[in-house]
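REVIEWER CHECKLIST
Item 1: Sequence provided? yes
Item 2: Single chain? yes
Item 3: Sequence as submitted:
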Amino acid sequence: MKKYLLLFWVAMTSIYALAADYHSLEEIRDQWRSRNIKVPQGGQNPNIVQLLSAFQNAWGAYMVDEVLECAKAPRFTSKKDEELNIEIIVDRKNGYACLDNGGTDSGYMETCMWRRDNGHRLFAVVLGQPVDPMIEFVCFYDYDPKTSTLYPEDGPEQEFRPLSKDAEKSYSLPRKGKDFIISEYEIDLQANINHVFSWDGSRHHFSHVSIDGLKYGYRWFNPKETDYLVEMTKIAFITLPGQEGHFYLLTDDEEDGMIALASYKGDLELVGINDSITCHKMTFYPNGVVTEAEIYQYTSYAYLKDGYVLQMFNEYPSQEQNGPTRVTSDGWDDMAESEVRQMFKSLGQPLQIKPEWRKVKLTSFP
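Item 4: Structure as written out by the authors:
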């Protein structure tokens, strides 16, 4: 039944779009900066419905009409199709409205506004659809109350530095709060990397990164020793030569300690530690990461492929004098020592890594 309801919803949306003079999302994405928009009776304090209506009159996005149709009722706040999980919200008090497609193949939109210190408004609209074609973009306007006009302007997405050109990117506008968020979906981690931009009363500035699958910001090793618990506040994303994927470096404010993490199929794995307190020293190679621990007299080799751990080896000195070194393998079948040695030799010459650190906010303790 749900399948037929979904097909009906998509079909009716498509018919509705054909019946009116709508622009395609590709047209709006490519041309929205080309014109200013007059807001009828905008005045000093326009509400979100007035701004959205003016935008719709100028550009005509089919999913916006569904929101404006609901907004004709002055007391309308929200409605939800429980079967399809599609929801429409109009929150005039907080200056926010949206059409959430609930994960269906129909179009979606989100809009909000911020009050600027100079009396203007920053107005934003996110438009998207998941198929035919898959597209999502955001439009930003400055509203001038003296002229009751929306003027296109560049938003924080213009300064955004993605981790990957191929990553799926999405935008989130606040219903409450003031942060603007750009999210990249990390395929290996199977989670979003969220780039948070904070509001200063005039414009948005990059604030920090948060990662859905990376929760805790305490130092990874010796978690029971409180003297070693240092807050991880910076993150960098590293791709080694010859590697297609990337892995994560975390460090504290002073960059005294560092850990390297790799992700694959939703799991995080510790691949290296650099810390003077516990005498761990981490070295980078084109195909791997090596951690030597002077106190514990072992060497850990993380052999990488496309940014994730193909094999982790731990080398321990023998308990017997002049005895053979023990080599263990984690996560995969054990390998012959000769084969392991050959893999170690293939690491090549050490690399000099210069991380481009970004601020990260993680939960301090589990």
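Item 5: Key structural point noted by reviewer: Helices lie at 2-19, 25-31, 48-59, 62-71, 337-345.
Item 6: Recommendation: ____
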